[in-house]
Amino acid sequence: CFEADWTHTKMDRVLPDPMQRAALKPVLKRYYPVTRELFRLYCSASTGDAFFISLTLWTDMRRDMGITSREKDAILDTAFIAANVELEEDDENPDHALCRYELQEVLVRSALILYPPSMSATGPASSLELLLTRHVVPAAMRMFGIDNPLEPFSNQFRIEQLYAVEVETVFRRFWRQIVALFRRFATSVDGSAKMFLSITQW
Hints:
The chain is mostly helical. Helices cover about 60% and strands about 5% of the residues. The chain has eleven helices and four strands; from the N terminus they run H-H-H-H-E-H-H-E-H-H-H-H-H-E-E. The protein has helices spanning about 1-10, 10-15, 20-30, 30-45, 55-65, 75-85, 100-115, 125-145, 155-160, 165-175, 175-185; strands at about 55, 95-100, 185-190, 195. The strands form two sheets. Strands 1-2 form a two-stranded antiparallel ribbon.
């Protein structure tokens, strides 16, 4: 998943130096589980497309994570605009919203703005590490109530609360009603026999 996102970013334009990109990539990859979950969280707050982050949501996200500076807020907004530039036209990627791989890029751009490489010992990779450890990780720990944001935790709710004998007992008791509800609102996709419940139907 991370490798696919990395391939789609314009990181070669953000950091033309291949050595700097090579140093930065493992940092971004190490924290990918938390940035991916944050992307999902803020997408769920969208009033439009549920798979993208608008400028308004990105601004909320920045403020929630403390990625803000009175002197640099306007410049930080340009990071959003720059990350949205498409080198090839893509109808499935809105021009004014971030998809998942664009979030990775905007975080790097924001790190370079908030923590210029000249202020860090090891250049852009260190700038990104500062942004992630000082802002992104603490915010994620607070929002998700987790202790280790570097591990995939989207399944944490299922493991800790859903996959339990007591829950299964309740589901079994009301299973016929649950199935009836699903069949009432679910629809097929592309005419197949499989039925799904979209976010709109939910």
